[in-house]
Amino acid sequence: MMISATLESLADNQVLYLVTVGRVTARPREIEIWFIIHCERLYLFSEHREAAGWVRNLPRNPHVSVRIGRRTMKAVARVLDYQKDRRLWNQVQVIADRKYGWGDGLPVEITPAA
Asked: Which residues of 47-60 are buried (b: 16+ CB within 10 A; e: fewer)?
């Protein structure tokens, strides 16, 4: 697992590469996506919300791989629930808007594996 100082040092990168496991094929699926870092976790925003293939892969297998620059880590992903995670949802949306000028998608939390 990356130590938090290392994770924070990657915050200025514009994109990361997320690998999920295909829900039908069980094959690795990689996407390039914007991200932010908040409280030692990564947050991604799905423009197409629950319709995005990578988001649809997560309920079947939340274990993912993330690459930022030359750093790769294993992690676990979860889609934020607006009712249960409203405060966190709003916090990460503000950070994304500050970084990219956009944060209206569905937030997905990525927790680095120990």
From this structure: eeeeebebbbbbee
